[in-house]
């Protein structure tokens, strides 16, 4: 394989245009070989359902309307999300930038470097992202990277809402609140 | 085009894993598995996220439409509504700003060693998606069918052929990226 200098796997970062183009090509392969757009949110629901069934029993969880519509089993999207974790890990291993961190830099400069505060914030934010991603049936990967190229109206509207509210809330939190 | 391949579940699981590995690799190399980069985008100080997303959209849009034209693939588009798309997107946006990741970049962040993504963000996502699944019947009944959109796609909405929309969007998005570079953002 020809490796261009700009595609050096040991470099910590590539141009976002190059990485983005690579993602666009991957999307084409996902649609061609798997007949599927990208998506990550539903896999989390599946894992949540699996965990719940450990406590309540599989029958009761599978009886819920949601899991009747989206059956509870290890599917393509679970493997896709697992792959993202592995792919990002490989990328940082190759560039030697893998590092265990607890509080991101931007967060620490504003809210301090107490990991507990960051964990609580991340759990609250994560719960809202989880509810929102299911509520509108998508996330920036599915609506943004997969739905907009298919010219889906719902995807354009969803991504506009995500970023408009995200930018508004971000500016409020980091520029007004503190 | 590959109907038999779609039916082979084992191969599909392997393909899902391989495509995920590629996606995670590109997300990390593109810089968007970092909380600082994503929050920088929401604060409009760092445009890496938009640069990566728009390049993926431009390449994907051209590729998908060519493959569709050849009859190789079918599109997966569904009808949105105010009650689902708008409300869900807004809840997501609020969480996006607080968490600093979306579900895909959260998975990538776990792979790069960001423990707040694993023990905070992922735990929160499990709680949120679990709650949604639990209350799905009520949410479905009260919200999802409110203000259903009249059409599925932009070309249907505007009443013009898809290829014109593709060309216009490619020009607009490329122009936007060019402007970002000119402004050194």
Provide structural commentary.
The complex is a heterodimer of chains A (178) and B (185). Chain A has 178 residues and is an all-alpha fold. Chain A has a domain of 100 residues. Chain A has 9 helices and no strands. The longest helix of chain A is centred in the C-terminal third of the chain and has 25 residues. Chain A starts with 15 loop residues before the first helix and ends with a helix. The mean pLDDT of chain A is 95. Chain B is an all-alpha fold and 185 residues long. Chain B contains 9 helices and no strands. In chain B, helix 2 crosses helix 6, helix 4 packs antiparallel against helix 9 and helix 5 packs antiparallel against helix 7. Chain B is globular and about 45 Å long. The mean pLDDT of chain B is 97. Chains A and B meet through helix 1, helix 2, helix 4, helix 5 and helix 6 of A and helix 2, helix 3, helix 4, helix 5 and helix 6 of B.
Number of discrete helical segments of chain B: 9
Helix content of chain A: over 70%
Beta-strand segment tally of chain B: 0
What is the number of helices of chain A? 9
Topology of this protein?
The complex is a heterodimer of chains A (178) and B (185).
Chain A: H1 16-33, H2 41-56, H3 58-62, H4 65-69, H5 76-95, H6 105-111, H7 115-135, H8 140-147, H9 153-177
Chain B: H1 3-7, H2 9-30, H3 35-42, H4 48-69, H5 82-99, H6 103-111, H7 115-144, H8 154-158, H9 162-182
């Amino acid at each position: 394989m020809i490796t261009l200098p700009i595609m050096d796997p040991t470099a910590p970062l590539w141009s976002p245009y190059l990485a983005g183009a690579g993602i666009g090509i991957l999307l084409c392969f996902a649609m061609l070989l798997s007949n599927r757009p990208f998506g990550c949110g539903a896999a989390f629901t599946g894992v949540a359902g699996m965990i719940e069934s450990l406590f309540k029993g599989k029958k009761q969880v599978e009886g819920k309307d949601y899991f009747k519509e989206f059956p509870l089993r290890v599917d393509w999207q679970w493997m896709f999300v697992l792959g993202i974790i592995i792919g990002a890990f490989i990328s940082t291993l190759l560039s030697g930038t893998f590092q265990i961190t607890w509080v991101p830099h931007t967060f620490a400069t504003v809210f301090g470097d107490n990991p507990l505060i960051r964990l609580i914030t991340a759990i609250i934010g994560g719960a809202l992202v989880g509810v929102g991603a299911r509520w509108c049936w998508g996330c920036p990967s599915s609506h943004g990277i997969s739905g907009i190229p298919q010219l889906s109206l719902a995807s354009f509207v969803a991504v506009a809402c995500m970023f408009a509210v995200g930018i508004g809330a971000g500016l409020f939190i980091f520029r007004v609140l503190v | 085009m590959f109907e038999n391949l779609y039916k082979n579940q084992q191969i599909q699981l392997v393909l899902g894993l391989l495509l995920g590995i590629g996606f995670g690799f590109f997300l990390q190399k593109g810089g968007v598995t970092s909380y600082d980069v994503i929050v920088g985008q929401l604060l409009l100080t760092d445009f890496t996220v938009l640069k990566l997303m728009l390049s993926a959209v431009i390449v994907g849009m051209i590729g998908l439409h060519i493959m569709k034209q050849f009859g190789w693939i079918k599109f997966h588009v569904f009808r949105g509504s105010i009650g689902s798309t708008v409300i869900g997107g807004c809840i997501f946006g609020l969480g996006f700003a607080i968490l600093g990741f979306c579900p895909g970049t959260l998975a990538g962040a776990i792979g790069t060693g960001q423990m707040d993504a694993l023990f905070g963000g992922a735990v929160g996502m499990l709680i949120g998606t679990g709650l949604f699944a639990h209350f799905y019947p009520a949410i479905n009944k009260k919200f999802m069918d409110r203000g259903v959109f009249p059409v599925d796609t932009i070309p249907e909405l505007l009443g013009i052929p898809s290829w014109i929309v593709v060309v216009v969007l490619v020009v607009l998005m490329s122009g936007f990226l060019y402007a970002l570079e000119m402004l050194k953002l």
